[in-house]
Amino acid sequence: MKKSSSRGFGTALLLFILGLIAGTVVAVLLHTLTTGKFENGYLLDLPSWLLGALVAVVAFLYALIGYYGVVKGLLWQVAGTLLGALFVTALRAALGMPYSDMNTFWFTESAWVTGVMVGTLFFLAGVGAITDWYKMALGQTVSEHHTDVPGFRKYFGVSLDHKVIGIQYTFTSLLLLSVGGLFALVFRTELAQAGMQFLSIELYNTLMSLHGMVMIVSILLGIAGVMNYLVPMMIGAQDMAFPRLNAFSFWIAIPAAVILLSSLALGGFDTGWTGYPPLSVRAPLGMSMFFVGVWVAGWSSILGALNLIVSVLRLRAKGMIAFRMPIFVWAATATSIISLTATQMIGLAFQLVLFQRLLGMPFFDSTKGGNPILFQHLFWFYSHPVVYVFVLPGLGVISELLPVFVRKPLFGYKWVAMSSLGIALVGFLVWAHHMFASGMNEYLRVPFMFSTLLVAVPTGVKFFSWVATLWQGKLVRDLPTPMLFVLGGIVVFLLGGLTGPPNATVSTDLHLTDTYYIVGHFHDTMFGGYIFPFFASIYYWFPKATGKRLNEKLGKWHFWLMTPSFLILTLFMMRVGLLGMRRRIGDYDPAMGFGLWQMAMTIAAFLIAAAILIFFYNIYLTVKSGENATGNVWKSRSPEWQVPSPMPVYNYEHEFEVVGEPYDYGLPGSVYVKINSEEV
Amino acid sequence: MQKNVHHYVIMSVLVIVVTILTYWGLNVLGLMPVQASSQAVQIDWLFDIEVKLIAFFFALIMVPLCYSLVVFRQKEGDETDAEHIEGNTPLELTWTAIPLVIVIALGIIGADNLRQIKTVDPQAIEIKVIAQQWKWLFQYPEGFSSTKLYLPVNQQVDLKMQSQDVIHSFWVPEFRISQDVVPGSIEDYRITPNLLGNYKVRCNEMCGKNHAYMESDVLVVSQADYKTWVGTQALSAKATEMASAGKPDAGRGQTLYQESGCPACHSLDGSKGIGPTWKGLFQSQVKLTTGSSVLADDAYLTESIKLPQAKTVAGFSVNAMPNFSYLTDGQVADLVEFIKTIK
After folding, report:
1. What is the enclosing helix (H) or strand (E) of A599?
2. Architecture of B250-341 per CATH?
């Protein structure tokens, strides 16, 4: 078994390299055939490379798992995209409309958009995410049981087990995190010196714009992964309320990510992740791929959130009243309420620009009665609350892990729980603070300043409660890696939070808006609120998922390399931002004297990348030959740690009952959950 | 509680020390560029209050966090849990109420600060600012335009800003204020420069390919120098107009070609840009997206400048060209005259 799988991996690597070459050659041939001349530059052309990479990934996966699951899905997606595009092309030809455009890679833009939409449906059909519903519609019986293929292959195909889906989400998230991080590394290197060194300004703009959205999708999948994995276990449920919908929510994110990344090959775009019209109306074809990709990914968020809310409302174990839920469940619920109700807005905003691009509907064209500012309102109505979607689960992880490691109850549990809902609520009322300099109605700026400042209150409650939890707590001596990441998360998020109020008061924001100060500020909130807690939760729950514990020494290297580098990166960002460095620029005036700061930031970025590589190496090493850890590794009171790891399918073999408070550390004789194993 | 009093005393002292050190350190570092407008003085005053708050709250969280890490850390061989403290409602109420008061106060101060920087001087000089990919143009009330913004010191100016294509943003870091320029509306930007010097306006809203390079000089000069400069510019503008006696002039056209940002899209050497090259354009047959061809004569060139969407050249995007409605008929004729000379 072991032998054959290692041979499989070798074949897979070989196929990856062959695929990369083959894909590139095919792309160069296509180029040459359609333009009638061969140019050396095609070999280094992005479309060629990306087609090569796609072929390589499919070939790699094929060698690993055969014609199954995601391989089938991706091949079907390619076929569906071509079919959809050809259909529109034929239709346009029949109607006497222009049906081919060399500026948009052979097909017209409408053909491409229809193509990738059809491709998404084909992916879902190919991977098998809608098979059960199809069978139900035909009146056939479908299995209610989780029948997974054995071994690691189950992670590459449709599974209904929330734990498998959680790991699929997390893995995909880490993959996109690497891709988005790589983009950042590339353009960060370009920024090390003034002048353009190795990127064209167009490619810089595309990479910078994609970095934002790829990271956002990565974070959305990451929180979905952690919530999917943990919430059913924490509330004592066998699974999520709608397992098929759960699988669908995950699998629709894969074609979404493929479409989003395809924008790099299909002409790129230059708007930043915000896609403001009228610029986004004029941008190349890549813009439409970006819009469709985000639109499709939005479904994943909305449906996943719906599933989670229903699960928390309906599937809690006996005795688990609201104020006895693990605090992470509160955070997950608050997050899901935002995802469920706000995501539609960004989908709508992007859809309207698509309609303007494809059908000439002038929603944002001021010469025809449209209004560019309207887009910004729609866009930020989602895109501000979504930052709380990103950070609330992370803050929940911090609140969840602190009591375990300081052996003391979470200070003010109810206040912490309510502060999550408070942040979610206030988060809906602050969107226009992104638009203080936008030219929207001036009188709107003052109420939005007040509502924005108000966010500090529930956030402050969290910080004070964490500090009070730590105060007099017996922090475990050897500071295990998850706890390091929790503490790092608190410090980094504190910096992100404290640098917020100057953006909230209108007059100071007029200087800070759209500068590197903002870039530093939100990277602090994203890392403190998401990245650090995300790593904390991977180190913390890895034994639960695999029965093995990640290497502590490598974990500490990861932490101590990443944290100082990251602090340097963002503090320097804020520094140059205050002095006049604008965001989203590929080149800057050397006379401003930012050279050394920029170089330091680039070095810091590479150190962060090195730390992440250590993390991946740690996962590889642990899966291969890690130390077994099947018990209650962290001496937690949480229900999932009361049974041996890894967790069985359907979680608890016996029902449990909640009989006490979740965080009564230090209270002799107290019990949180009673697992009814002895009684029948 | 009693037995812990010394912890609270040490912590409070440390919070004060760290607050002062943080604030002092940030001040020594110097956070902002020079103040070159009276609005900047007011904005920096508010920013300073916020830096003080940041220093205090940074200390308030970091000190007890680090203190707990060191002092309360599990002792060697101690396997017991910590003291069972579930919470403290009066304390939670306190740290909800006090920040609430602080943010409301900050909001009131912030609103008042906004009112101050928006103060209108009825004597303000109005200058028209035209933003387009990737160029700034400044039109002075005396009837001339300039690619550099000259401003008199200690005199409020009201920039009436408009965009010809996409959203741009006017930002001079030394003035502290940025303002987006949205196509379809005119934005006011009031500023009172108070320090002589050379600064740069840089576009602060992603506006496409060459956004990074969309910058112009801003020169704050003495009121006397300003008067002299305006006088000279107005005179020379008049002189060129007189010289050609109302006839189109290729020389003026060439200046307009540079000033209006045409080189961003239209080359003079035959190389392909975002728009067609002007080399050999006059009297050539132009292939359109509709499949038909048209002769590039005076009428076609004039129409293409005034109504860019009317006819689109094959291989180019219909929406690429901004609206140049601010050009007068005479200026359009100058440009056409210039195109005729590019062979």
Report:
1. helix A595-625
2. Orthogonal Bundle (1.10)
Q: What is the mean pLDDT of residues B32-36?
A: 95
Q: What is the pLDDT of residue A2?
A: 40
Q: What are the residue ranges spanned by the domains of chain B?
A: 2-69+97-117, 125-242, 250-341
The whole-angstrom separation of Cα B27 and Cα A525 is 24
In-domain check, residue A30: yes
A407 with B81: Cβ contact below 8 A = yes
Domain assignment present for A20:
yes
The architecture (CATH level 2) of B125-242 comes to: Sandwich (2.60)
Q: Determine contact: A496 vs chain B, CB below 8 A.
A: no
Number of CB pairs, chain A paired with chain B, less than 8 A apart: 278
> Is residue A245 a part of any domain in this protein?
no
Residues of A in contact with B211 (CB under 8 A): 205, 270, 584-585
Residues of A in contact with B76 (CB under 8 A): 477
Residue A51 is assigned to a structural domain of this protein: yes
Both structure tokens of A380: 């930020």
Contacts of A515 in chain B (CB under 8 A): 204
Return the structure tokens found at A13.
Answer: 């690597």
Is any Cβ of chain B less than 8 angstroms from the Cβ of A623?
A: no
Domains in chain A, number: 1
Using one digit for the tens of pLDDT, what is the confidence trace for A68-126?
A: 899 999 999 999 999 999 999 999 999 988 888 877 888 999 999 999 999 999 999 99
Q: Token pair of B64, please? A: 């007890």
Residues 235..254 of B with a Cβ closer than 8 Å to A: which? Answer: none
Nearest-Cα distance to chain B for A5, in Å, is 44
Q: What angle do CA A280, A285, A286 make, to 5 degrees?
A: 80
ipTM of the prediction = 0.92
A418-438 as b/e: b if 16+ CB within 10 A: bbbbbbbbbbbbbbbbbbbbb
Interface of A with B in 72-91 (CB under 8 A): none
Enclosing domain of residue A42: 1-66
